[in-house]
Specification:
The structure holds 2 protein chains of 2 kinds. In chain A, 58% of the residues lie in helices and 7% in strands. Chain A has 4 domains: 140 residues, P-loop containing nucleotide triphosphate hydrolases (Rossmann fold, 3-Layer(aba) Sandwich), CATH 3.40.50.300; 62 residues, Helicase, Ruva Protein, domain 3 (Orthogonal Bundle), CATH 1.10.8; 94 residues, no CATH class; 76 residues, no CATH class. Chain A is α/β, with parallel strands linked by helices. Chain A is elongated, with a radius of gyration of 29 Å. Chain A is built from 19 helices and 7 strands. Chain B is of the alpha/beta class. Chain B has 16 helices and 5 strands. Chain B has a 5-stranded parallel β-sheet. In chain B, helix 12 crosses helix 16. The chains are: A alpha/beta, B alpha/beta.
Chain lengths: 421, 336
């Protein structure tokens, strides 16, 4: 149903691109120079870490200048042959309507030195004779395979840097304004800081957290602190939930450098949202229950060899539960609620225990029994009868916070506390 | 004057306690039930000698009250000085026995009765090690200290301890006795307790007097005559483990919401997985809208889950697998 926000909110114009003003302006100058004739540097090499706007810059500028963008990324051109076919032709012949044109060879990191032997020399050869600007992008410019591009006379080399958090924050604010989401500054700032300049991942985060909401609070986002790299866990989840065969699903675990219990929670949380046929969902949940059974056995016997069965059932078992169903549209992955609840309720449980302790002092029951057998009735009383509640609050010696907790809210608690004082 | 009267009246009304505590018998002679047990305990008081005892029986049947009353009768108003009350659920480890219990047990008490009393509540929650340690302590300090172990199931107390104790088996209160007690409280507290309200309390609490009194007080707090309706609404609010509703939601196809309910029961209200599974098992055969052939199929899963919980598996994960099957059953029923 939903488009990815990285696409939906992609900058249409250069002015909207986040950060890297210097790099962008030298790139702009170079591209505009093609209007006066073919420059010495026929290709620009944009490099820098992922998600900071290299591709977006090219797209936005092409749009601003009314140029036709011919774009291919690593998965499209693997061999010398393919590159010649595509880029060779595009670099020589006019497009329809005689529009100006820019050729983008994206994600060169994906070109393998050995498997795609000949790809890089083919590119350099094409650049030598191109009649249209060619733009290359890669993360790791200093990789050996790119040695050929280090010649500054032939190539304009532009480094893109991670934009500072405040720039990312501005971008997130812009998106929220467009989508009519009222977000706490603190929440957006948290996402921006976490992203470490990776704008794309920040936008993905924002979408996962805010989509379908009118409000975004700090509480909504603080769980991000738990994960290392979200694309790692998201990739693994996709592999498990939509794996075509057992091995593909199982490999997810090898790839992911995540704690297995944590991964289990992720799968357990998200599986129900990704299986829409009840029988398939039931099979998936059963598989998770079986994995959990082995976890229990490991805990009890300390026989860690059993771990392989945990992995089998939580990955392959879940993947194979899918028969033919496929949810339509983009479904965001959710952070495991149980862990969220657990940390959120740690304070609450402390409070509840203290209340239990005070009940115990008065009523000759254990703290546990007090919470289970007495507290529920106290709740009813505190919600319905302020006078009786006030009397009991004194008798049990509950403090203000405890009264608020039992009464289920500040308003009712204040009425009770007024009677106490 | 009028103002002062109002103030005094208000203060008086504010002096609430939990009725279960306020009306807890102080002496053996005030105990409303367990006649045989009370008689035997009274004979201990008369002879000024008490053996080690085990009080076993379901909750809310007067075990703790009997132990406290016995001590009160034995020592008089200063009974607190001769008594220690420990709850094994809160202090269940072996260290408690080694330190707290031993320190208390070995010091001789001053007074005409040469021994103290240690009440160990919920003793069936003690670890095996702690029970072994307790056994030796009981033996060594018999002269200075007598133990009253309180438990729901005496079976969970190790054989050597059982053989050293006089056993007392407490049973649920009969309906008339519970009713009499509740009516007495209602009268004292100016609560209009209707007959059907009284019946409802017994239906819900089944002879657990503490639960019955708590229910009465919570129902009375609504400020209306206590009818079956008020009782059921209070009990419903006090018992969030609405397994019935959860199953209905799953049957209706909303697994995610059903799992959310389950999660709340376990995490927010601390309901034990074993209690939930017991409820599910009851509901399963009660519900008309589950296809008959599915009931057996589901019962098999319920049994398996029950077993797995004993094996240490995760309550929510296991139970939600069951909910997913129930969701499937509901879907099939709708002709999906």
């Amino acid at each position: 149903m939903h488009a990815a926000w990285t696409v939906k909110h992609k900058p249409k114009s250069l002015a909207e691109v986040v950060g890297n003003r210097e790099a962008i302006s030298s790139f702009e100058k170079w591209l505009k120079s093609w209007e006066k004739g073919i420059p010495k540097q026929r290709a620009a090499f944009l490099h820098g870490p992922p998600g900071i706007g290299k591709t977006v810059t090219v797209e936005a500028l092409a749009n601003d200048l009314g140029m036709e963008l011919i774009e291919k990324n690593a998965s499209d051109y693997r061999t010398e042959e393919k590159i010649r076919q595509f880029a060779g032709l595009a670099s020589q012949y006019n497009g329809f309507f005689g529009r100006k044109r820019v050729i983008l060879l994206d994600e060169l990191d994906g070109v393998h030195g050995t498997a795609d032997r000949g790809a890089i020399p083919a590119i350099t050869k094409i650049i030598l004779n191109t009649r249209y600007p060619i733009v290359l992008t890669a993360n790791d410019f200093w990789n050996k395979k790119f040695v050929a591009f280090r010649d500054k006379k032939k190539y304009l080399i532009i480094e893109f840097k991670k934009p500072p958090a405040r720039e990312v924050l501005k971008h997130l604010k812009r998106i929220c304004a467009k989508d009519d989401i009222s977000a706490e500054e603190e929440a957006l700032n948290f996402i921006a800081q976490r992203s470490e300049g990776d704008v794309r991942s920040a936008v993905n985060d924002l979408q996962a957290l805010a989509q379908g909401k009118r409000r975004l609070t700090y509480d909504d986002v603080s769980w991000l602190a738990y994960r290392d790299r979200k694309d790692v866990i998201f990739t693994v989840l996709r592999q498990v939930l939509y794996g075509k065969n057992c091995n593909a699903a199982k490999q997810a675990v090898d790839v992911a450098d995540v704690n297995l219990d944590m991964l289990f929670e992720w799968i357990y949380e998200n599986a129900p949202h990704h299986f829409n046929v009840p029988s398939e969902l039931a099979n998936a949940m059963e598989s998770l229950a079986t994995a959990d059974l082995y976890r229990g056995r490991i805990r009890q016997t300390q026989n860690w060899k059993l771990m392989r069965y945990v992995i089998d059932f939580m990955t392959a078992g879940v993947a194979m539960a899918r028969d033919k169903s496929k949810p339509s549209g983009w479904i965001p992955f959710r952070f495991p609620q149980r862990i969220r609840t657990l940390s959120a309720s740690r304070v609450e449980r402390g409070k509840k225990r203290e209340i239990g302790r005070k009940i115990k002092l008065r009523m000759h029951v254990s703290v546990v029994a007090a919470q289970k057998d007495v507290l529920p009735y106290l709740r009813v009383i505190f919600e319905s009868n302020t006078e009786m509640a006030a009397g009991l609050a004194q008798w049990f010696n509950f403090d203000e916070e405890e009264v608020v907790y039992i009464a289920g809210g500040k308003r009712q608690a204040n009425k009770i506390l007024k009677l106490v004082n | 004057m009028q103002f002062l009267y109002g103030l005094v009246k208000e203060l008086r009304e504010l002096s609430f306690e939990m009725w279960a505590e306020k009306y807890r018998p102080k002496f053996l002679s005030q105990m409303v039930n367990q006649k045989d047990i009370v008689e035997r305990l009274a004979s201990f008081v008369k002879s000024r000698n008490v053996p080690h005892c085990i009080f076993a029986g379901p909750p809310g049947t007067g075990k703790t009250t009997a132990a406290l009353s016995l001590a009160h009768d034995l020592y008089g108003d200063t009974y607190r000085e001769h008594l220690m009350e420990l709850n094994a659920s809160d202090e269940r480890g072996i260290n408690v026995v080694r330190e707290t219990v031993k320190t208390f047990a070995r010091v001789r008490t001053l007074g005409e009765i040469p021994f103290k009393i240690l009440i160990l509540d919920e003793a069936d929650n003690m670890t095996g090690d702690a029970q072994q340690a307790l056994r030796r302590t009981m033996e060594r300090y018999t002269e200075t200290c007598r133990f009253i172990l309180i438990a729901n199931y005496s079976g969970k107390i190790i054989e050597p301890i059982q053989s050293r104790c006089a056993p007392f088996r407490f049973t649920y209160l009969p309906r008339e006795e519970q009713n009499k007690h509740l009516q007495h409280i209602a009268q004292n507290e100016n609560v209009n307790l209707l007959n059907d309200g009284l019946d409802a309390i017994y239906d819900v609490c089944g002879g657990d007097l503490r639960k019955a009194i708590n229910s009465l007080q919570a129902a009375a707090s609504l400020g209306k005559p206590v009818s079956s309706e008020t009782v059921y609404s209070v009990v419903g609010r006090a018992n969030p483990a609405d397994v019935h509703a959860m199953i209905k939601i799953a049957m209706g196809g909303n697994f995610v919401e059903a799992r959310k309910r389950l999660r709340e029961m376990i995490m927010k209200y601390g309901v034990a997985g074993s209690d939930i599974i017991k409820q599910i098992h009851i509901e399963l055969f009660r519900l008309d809208d589950i296809p008959e052939n599915w009931k057996v199929k589901l019962a098999e899963i319920v049994g398996e889950v029950d077993f797995r919980l004993v094996e240490g598996a995760d309550e929510e994960v296991q139970l939600s697998a069951l909910l997913a099957r129930i969701t499937e059953a509901g879907y099939e029923l709708k002709g999906g």
